[in-house]
Amino acid sequence: MHRSRSPLAAALLIGSTALALSACGSEKAPTAPVTDSKAAPAATATDAPAAKASATAAPVKAGAPDLAAYVGKYPFDKVDGVAFGDHPLVKAGIAATVTDARVLKAIMTTQGPSSPIEMIDGKVASWACQQHKCGEHQWAVFVDPASGATDVCYVNDPAMTNESRWFLAGGKEERRKGDCATEKG
């Protein structure tokens, strides 16, 4: 004998299944809607050295919002018409810190879930991941709003789920235990 479910029960089952699937293994950071399809232009291998030569922190253009204004917002939310990833201090910091052109391109162009921006140890921190691959492809950006010094955590390998690759202000690179969401607390 087949038991029929009410339309409400079916809708709840479908909705909860979709929500569970959208988490894609990332239990530590809440997800948000995927940003629009307009991605930042892809970086090339020749872009990284030019950006690195421009120093760790670039002066903020007149009219660029204070980075603290992004705290509590998602990276794609705009403050005074500027999304977090498009802020001159953030773009310059990432470009100066991330020395691997492939990683730079992934961070600047891959779309997916993100968590609200936070202030962590005096730095404005943003976390995001590739949709449907959050456990194995994620990154976090930590920017000192006063100096522009930027640290970037990056994971892109199923074998790295307990280890992350860090690009630190000043050109240093290291490996750390845990994924990028671990650093957010």
Quick tags:
185 residues; alpha+beta; 6-stranded antiparallel beta sheet; two-stranded antiparallel sheet; 5 helices
Question: How would you characterize the overall build of this protein?
Answer:
There is one protein chain. With 185 residues, the protein is an alpha+beta fold. Helices cover 25% and strands 22% of the residues. The protein has five helices and eight strands; from the N terminus they run ααββααββββββα. A hairpin with a 6-residue loop joins strand 5 and strand 6. The longest helix has 17 residues, at 7-23. The protein is globular, with a radius of gyration of 18 Å. Residues 1-59 have low confidence and may be disordered.
**Radius of gyration, in angstroms, nearest whole number:** 18 Å
**Strand ordering within the main sheet:** 3-4-5-6-7-8
Rounded average pLDDT? 74
H/E element order? HHEEHHEEEEEEH
**Number of helical segments?**
5
Largest sheet: 6 strands, antiparallel
Q: Judging from the principal axes of the Cα atoms, what is the shape?
A: globular
Relative helix content: 10-25%
Poorly predicted ranges (pLDDT <50, ≥5 residues)? Answer: 1-59
Strand content: 15-25%
Annotation, overall tally of beta strands: 8
End-to-end separation in angstroms reads 50 Å
Structural class: alpha+beta
Number of separate structural domains:
1
